[in-house]
Structures are given as C-alpha cells and as structure tokens.
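Good morning N.,

You mentioned wanting to compare the apo and holo forms, so I went ahead and generated the holo version with zinc ion. This is what I fed in:
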Amino acid sequence: MAAEPEPAVSRRRLEVRGLVQGVGFRPLVYRLAQELRLGGWVRNHSGGVTIEIEGAAGAVDAFIARLRAAARPPIRIDTVEVEEVAPRGEQEFSIEPSVSHGGAVALVLPDLATCDACLAEILDPRDRRYRYAFTNCTHCGPRFTIVRDVPYDRVRTTMAGFVMCPACAGEYEDPVDRRFHAQPNACPECGPRLTLVAADGTRIPGDPLTGAVGRLIRGEILAIKGLGGYHLACDARNPAAVAELRARKHRDAKPLAVMVADLAMARELGEVSAAEEALLASPAAPIVLLARRADSGLSDQLAPDCTTVGVMLAYTPLHHLLLRGVGRPLVMTSGNLSDEPIAHEDADARRRLAGLVDAFLVHDRPIQRRCDDSVVRIWRDQPLFLRRSRGYAPAPLELEDDAEEVVLAVGGHQKNTFCLTRGREAFVSHHVGDLENDLALDAFETGISDFERLFELRPAVIAHDLHPDYLSSRYALERAERENLEVVGVQHHHAHIAACLADRGHPGPVIGLSLDGTGWGPDGTVWGGEVLLADRAGYRRLGRLRPFALAGGGAAVRQGWRVALALARDAGEDFADEWPGVAPRLWAGVVEMLTRDVQCVLTSSAGRLFDGFSALLGVRAVSRYEGEGAVALEGACEPAEGALPFAVNKKDLDELDWRPAVSAALAERRRGVPPGETATRFHRGLAIGLATLCEKARQDTGVGTVAVSGGCFQNITLLSAVSEELERRGFDILTHRRVPPNDGGLSLGQAVVARARVRGCISCV
Ligand code: ZN
Ligand code: ZN
Ligand code: FE
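and this is what came out, ligand included:
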C-alpha cells in the first residue's frame, strides 16, 4: 500500500506596506506564526516589512488571511504582495534585525493615545505600573514628540537619559511582549517622574498627582506638561475658573477644548454619533467638535456663541489619572498666550506661563518638538479636519501622482503648515500657527529643517503663496536664492482647490469653489469668493462674489460693522445702527472713507461677507478673533424656510451679487424677524447663488465636478447647504477629508501645483 502523501509544504514571501513599524506589528506576526506552527522570519526595512513564512500550505494560507484581520489600529496594512519562493525546511520563526538601505527612508510615527492594555495596567493596584503616568507600549505612547534623530531607537529619543531597569529591559527584548522594542518603555523604577511646582518655582511636597487633582477640584489653573507641549487646565464646569483662565490667557472668545475621561463623560457634554465615537476613541484622539447638550453643565464661558463643544478623550496615562481623580471634564487649552506658539520647553514654559497659572504639573521627559492637538469635525460620517496635527503628523499622505523632485511648500500665513513631498508621499507638518511674530517664525524655520533631517529630504523646488509680504513667501524666496532652488509661486485660491484635488486623489479639471477670508489676487484686489476652473497645473477664474470695500483695510477684518456699512451703501440702503463700542466719530470716518473711496481695499472675500451680514443682523459687529463674526452667524442659525435672494450678473466674470440679499435681510430685521432665521436664509441663499454660478461654469466648460475648499467650509451649515444645492443639480462634489479646507491645507495644494509645473504638465484649463 502506498504511503500517505506528505502534506504540501509552501514558502511565501510577503511585502507589507502601510503603518507597520514601531506599532507592534512584528510581535503580532511572530505570535500568529507560532500559533500556526510556521517557520520563517519577519524583518523591518526602510520601505516596510518583509515576512517569509513556511509550512503546510493550508496554514500558510490561513496566516495570510488572519494577518489582515488581526491588524488593528494603530497598525494599518495598505498592501501585501505575496510571492511563492522555494521552501528551505525552516521550522522556527524569528524576528530578524532591521536592515537599512543606503539613503534609507526613516519612519517617524505620530504620537498615539494610550491603549486599553496600558490603561488597565495603570488602574490595577496589583500592577507594577499602577498610577504610573508614563506607561506605554508598541501600540501607544509618544513618538513624533520625542524623536531626536533617525533611525527611531531609544538612544535617539528624549528617553535616552533613562536607563531601563531589568524588568523593563526584559519586556523590551522579548519578541512576544507588547513592549518588544517599545522605545519609550518605562516604569516607576526607571522612567520619568512627575513634579508639582508652585508658580514661583518652588517644588510642592507630596504626591504630585494627588496635589494636582486637589488643586483642580478647588478651581485652580494648572499648566500641565503633555505630549507635544503644555496645556492650561481647569475645571470645565467651574465658571469662575474658566473666566479666570480666559482673562489670564487674553483669549476673549475663542472656544476652549475640553478633555474627558471616557466616552461616557463625552456623552454628557455632546451628542456622539457612531462616527464621532470612533474618531474620539481612535489612536489619534483628536479634539472632536460635538453638538453641545443643553444640560452639559459646562461653563457658558467655554465657547460663547457656539452650538458645539470641542471634546477629546484623555490620551496619555497622565491625563487618564488626572481625569479619573478630578471626576469631571477639564478645560485643556494650549499653553500659550493668544497668537503665540504652544510652549514645549521647560524653561520657556516656566517663563511664559508663570503669570497664567497657580501651579505647574511637570515631568523630566523632554519634549523634542511641539505638536498641538488636532481638531476634527464629523460631516456626513467623514472627518473634516480643522487642524491636522498631533496623532496625524508626520504620517505621510499618499498622493496619486508621482514626482522625482523633492518639493518643499511653505504654506500660508495663518494656520501655517508646511509640506515636503517625495515620490508618492506628502509629509504635511504639524500645525505651526499664525506667522505673526518671531516666536512663530522661529517655530516655522526650525520645523522645516527638522523635517528635512528626519525624513532625509533635500528640496529641489520651493513653492509659496503669491502674497509678497507673507513671512513664509519671504523665507521661500530668500532660501531659493541662497540655495539656487527652483521656485514656484502659487495663487492662494488655486492652492486651496489643488489641496482638495490632492486630498481626494482627483486629477481635475474641476470647478473649484474657493471661499475664505483673504488671499492675494493677481488683479490687485483681495480674493476670497472665487469660482475657478482648475487642475493641478493651472486655473482660470470664472466667477466671483461682487467685490465690496474694506474701509480701513485690516481694521475691517475685525470690525464687521465696517463691511456692513459698505454692503448697505452699495445696496442703496439707508442704514444706521447703534453698535455698542463704535464711536460716532469712528462711524463718520468710515462713511467718509467709503464716500471718497480712500483707504478702501476691494475684496470678493466670502469670509468678510459673512462678517458683514453678521453685523447687519446685529449678531456680531466686532470680532475678537478673525472669523468670529462668521462663527457667530453660523451659531445663530435657527430653523427657517426660504432663502435670501442673490442675483447672478454677467460681466467679464460671472458675479454673485449680494445686494438683493442685503436689502432683504434689512427688511426682515425691520420687521422684527429673529436674526437666527435670517441667518439660515442667508446661508441657503448664498448656497443657491454659488450653485447657480457652478451651473454656468458647467455650461461653459462641460466640467461636472465641483471641489469645495477654503476656510469658509469649516462652516458645516454652509458646506451642507452648498452640497445639497449642487447635488440637486447633478454635480459630483469633492470635499476635504485628509487635510483642512482652511489655510492649514494650503501647503499640500502648493506642493502638488509645484510638482505639476516642474514636470512640465500643461494645464488643460
Ligand atoms: Zn499601550
Ligand atoms: Zn523599568
Ligand atoms: Fe485661504
């Protein structure tokens, strides 16, 4: 009788790409191979992870199937290429040392929120990491904010000064341990420690955590050293503490974010959908804007005029321990004065924050680079980024086009980010902020050189905004001159639309609706309400908002009543209002400017139009931060039927004429219609008008896809209204999902425009 045939042996090589390094992927592979009794090895290399696996053919198949199923965030498998190779009779499975090719691509991951396993340990009195604020593993913990250099190893992080105790070292070296090669691995024996320090710099005795919790409960304001910088914290349900924090920070009106212990506490504050829950609990743990509950118990001072509240879950062990100790939501706002970058260095933080806080909760693990919290909203079950920073940067965004040249795009002036591209990857930076002062400019320049070193990139091309006075533009031009680099200037609103194309992997051409506050227009006016026909390489302006005067230029940005006055006069309305805080002389001066057309800048800015209507309706006449008028107008919206009338005029460009809407809004106001109803009709009327412009553009060009971008589309009332009107007319719509529609997305747009231009792409518009 013939012997039973041997089961077929198979050996396969797997090339795995995605987020697979520094996240516990190799231990996962190892465990799976052990379970299925397979031989072979797994190895990191610069482009990803290679696995060779050998054993019974059925088990090898099972391994491949189960690998994808077992990969949970933060692990993300993008592609697996499988190749059959000759069996070698290998029975054992091993984790091999990493190999780095010449000119290797370094991998630096974003910081990741504390995982469930680590959380369970710090809450377990029997665990050796009970109440230990720096617990982490390969699934969670600091990355981007502690890396000094590459490759990513402990000696090149800010953990270099801490020597692992034998217990930690054992975990670090054990391939099946969750802490295998967890570079920041630490415990109370060997790792960083907390200290509580009084405002005058003296150390406060006793347990720092207990002390900090007690002070927060008593209503004090604390500076807390976190992952990417210092936070200012206080009890979010204590109105006096919140008001005091606002006063000390000189932050009059901008909403403050709140941190909660868990999803249950988040649900007390706002409505949480399934998509919002998933985002809150994701490893990035961003601030998520939720619809605020009426019974949230939060101080009214937290987010005046807003119907939303920015909520994030505790994302480090320190946060978890604090939140559980205090038992109520905490304000957690970046530790800076308004307009300055977040403080992240200890001495600097002590100096800058000393007058703002009652005590400092600090530790001795240095922060290598600052990184603000990300801010995301869910719209139609998809993320809409308002700020893409901690938890996301510096993970590369995949591009659908390719370019050999390394491009540096320096971004805009406000909400600055910069971006470096290589091949099909775009490294969009963390949030740098408004480049208004030396501190911010320094953060910008350091950030760029830092990224170039970490990712081993030398730019050949620099892209910048066409505005000659932006500090980012000046940096680009000076550096291009000094280093003899190719330089590409990109128009602001084209960059917004290109960012949307890159965000969604669309080649164009599209009709671009680019609506924001301010951007340099090549015709000498300020643009901001534009209809463009655009692809990556070029654009053509098809339409715009009817321009109006900004009396006093920059002053009109914060004083919406100046815009209201200009709009009303242009609409032929006799308009005088009592605006508290506006002196009659100032008023008369602005009337004079408008009448004689002096110190007036023309603009088609949609952002300013919002400010103007906000003032016309008596919602907000003076903004304490840019865009507050617009934010308040959205916040004021109440259910209402109908739409304010906008007209479309055919000139050299199609022009959306807001004058009928101004007259209608004033008539409603005189009749005593609640401003919230008129505000809703304003949004809807503007959306109908914009959709009409898009229809005309479609007739002229045959293009049926609309990309919407620009800071105005952070307003989801507008975004929803515009989308509905476009859908009704049969358009395909592209909205942002990976970078913000605001100026935080500009750098990505500039980069892809520059890539197209240096490749010699001819724009088909
Ligand atoms: Zn963990
Ligand atoms: Zn230890
Ligand atoms: Fe913009």
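Residues 492, 496, 516, 519, 710-711, 743 surround fe (iii) ion (ligand 3) (CB under 6 Å).

Happy to go through it together on a call whenever suits you.

Best,
F.
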